[in-house]
Amino acid sequence: MFCKPLSIGSLSMSAPQRPVYTRAQMEKYFDRLNLPEEQRRYHVAGLSPGDALAYLASLQKHHLVQIPFENLSLHYSSHRHISIHPEALFTKIIADDNGRGGYCMENSGLFGTLLHSLGFNTYSAGARVFNQGRLSGWGHMIVFVKIGGQKYYVDVGFGANGPIEPMPVDHSGAIRPHIAPASARLQWRNISQNVDPDQRLWVYEHKIDEEHDWEPMYCFTELEFLPGDYRVMNLSTSTSPTTFFTKIVFMEKKLLGDDGSIIGNIILGTDVKWRIHGKKEREIKFESEEDRVKAIEEHFGIKLGVVERDSILGLVSQMKVAGLTNERSEMYIDYRTYCEFGRACRTYPPWVVELEARRRLGLVGLSASKARQSAVALEHCGGVPGGQNECLLTLSHASIPRLALLPPFCISLSLPTDTALNANICRHQYGPAAGGAGH
């Protein structure tokens, strides 16, 4: 059903058609939140303001506990693309039933659509995040909810220090509970980055405990942001090399206590740690990508496929290679990066330089320049159909004589003096005569 157009002078404008989730979708959403059957309501019409606020708080709590704040799609996927369309968000986080979450525009975009579908009076807005004293541009999303004449805002996509309950948008400056001994508050004030001292905006602040000072997390106004605003924000957040989302793997979700309240969180990056009431209770350090992938499945219930696991190879976020010095690990990653983004290795199997070869043969690492030369050689020599595991780049002086066994155009390439192609590469492509004796 379409709304009647509104006439303004000579212009005709239609009220925006906001996406809504169906009853069946909301049922799946509630299943994902592990929301008890007796607490499920599919419309808030008829609820008193107090009951509506309590329901909103319950939904926010369950969302923070069940759906992680994470950026895996920017590291463990071949496309590294984030869609913030409400249906795409529902498919990824709810329908696929794989434990996934997302970053702010995903989690809050999904949550905001649910609230609107339930009949809450909502709209969303952008925020600027403080990072070690520096203020970003618009890069965060929050959701406003109006209940009984009072405006609140909710946030299910900020991570460890984000609000854990609806925050009243008022000038009281009241201190709100957080995960004890932490607390939170909302301030209406100027920020030091403003040129105009008369400017005011809302600043969400968090304090670890009574011994620490208040720290600003992000700031925002009450201006409604439109889908086009978020498309611009999402493009920057998901692709900029300066944002932490593209540089590190990050996951976080809240933990419930026996009394049903939030008591801590689990955080994953280059390790996984559990924090209860502000204290680190447990920590597991990772020594390899395999360790991290295993922890993602074990502690977050997300099982990454082969393509997803391999997609991080060569990225700055990849774990250092176990068993190698930092220098050798960086050179190994340099090669993987070149193969991922360079023309030469586009169709060549990613395991062409295997860690196992380093371990067994004691090979030194590839520099970036050697990686480029060697990758070009692989392309000209045809590579290996099917990607046989024994086809490796050999960096041993003993392998230099094998160059004589390769086809002429392979020999003529400018290879590094200490680098030669394993004869198996051309043997697989041109037959035994071309490859000679092999290993």
Find the count of extended strands (DSSP E, 2+ residues): 17
CATH architecture of the largest domain: 2-Layer Sandwich
The 3D shape can be described as globular
Q: Percent of residues in beta strands? A: 15-25%
Report the helical percentage: 25-40%
Number of domains: 2
Structural class designation: alpha+beta
Q: What integer is the average pLDDT?
A: 79
Low-confidence stretches: 1-12, 331-439
Question: Which CATH top level class of the largest domain fits?
Answer: Alpha Beta
Strand order of the largest sheet: 7-6-5-4-11-10-9-8
CATH topology name of the largest domain, in short, is Arylamine N-acetyltransferase fold
Instruction: Count helical runs.
Output: 14
* Major sheet characteristics: 8 strands, antiparallel
Q: Output the radius of gyration.
A: 27 Å
Description:
The structure is a single chain. The chain is α+β, with helices and mostly antiparallel strands. The chain has 2 domains: 237 residues, Arylamine N-acetyltransferase fold (2-Layer Sandwich); 116 residues, no CATH class. Helices cover 32% and strands 21% of the residues. The chain contains 14 helices and 17 strands. Strands 7-6-5-4-11-10-9-8 form an 8-stranded antiparallel sheet. A 5-stranded antiparallel sheet has the order 3-12-13-14-15. A two-stranded antiparallel sheet has the order 1-2. The N terminus and C terminus are likely disordered. InterPro entries: Arylamine_N-AcTrfase, Arylamine_NAT_domain_sf, Papain-like_cys_pep_sf.
